[in-house]
Design a protein that fits this description.
alpha/beta; six-stranded mixed beta sheet; four-stranded parallel beta sheet; 11 helices; 13 strands; globular
Amino acid sequence: MLQIVTDTASDLTVGQAEDMNIHLVPLTITFEDGECPQERDEDFDVFYSRLKQSDSLPKTSCPSPELYLEIFERAKQAGDDVLVLTLSGGLSGTVESARVARELSGYERIFIVDTHQAIMAQRMAVEYAVKLRKEGAGAEEIVQKIQEVRDQIVVCGVVDTLVYLKMGGRIPAGLAVIGEALHIKPVIVLEDTILKTMAKVRGRKAGIDKLYARIENDGIDPDFPVYFGYTSNRGIVEDFMQETKKKYHLKGRCRLYPIGGIIGTHCGTDCIAVSYKKRENGGSV
């Protein structure tokens, strides 16, 4: 049997993980007045409510090796293979915690893959692994296929406010004030394992246009789903999703998911995001 493990940076809930028959290892989010779990969709709403009221950003921490070791020891006793799909190593030490736990376990049938992704893009990689497992693929085959597609999966979005980038020390306070007055919206992408700025535009519509330009340059692989994400404001992303479905004839391939606090800590409220796998030859959507 193959056991699959991922972490909560995928924004999978406990219930979704149970439905998929996978293990979910938590990263922690801690405000000044205590932890904020991310186990249910409702917890994401609580996180953004607390974020809006907080004068400082919460701290996020990767899972301890002990959390992985518990899973590995049980798999070792059962003689099962284990596939671990982690948050991008460019954003967190989560993959290193899993590797330390593998060494401590002394078990050779543990396969650890840095997905190079987060949020919906990490979810997409995990769901692809679960699909392959259902089709009868073994650990080594799934590792190979995930490594083939992980850098072809794209997640990009529009940050609505500069407030949280300022709070995190990523931009100077004076620049944030000017940027807010001019309605500047950073357009970001998770690329080469880290978050990068694709552009800075005035207004959400201009940001969406940048997302569409990226989609049209990449193309969308029809064999994979297209996911849309939001931080705290579902309505604006529902509109974006419907517009995108119509524009690119995506039909039933789209899903809408909340973005939790691991990435939401840095991006803040009212963001929109889209994730898809690039078409092999690029270009046409």
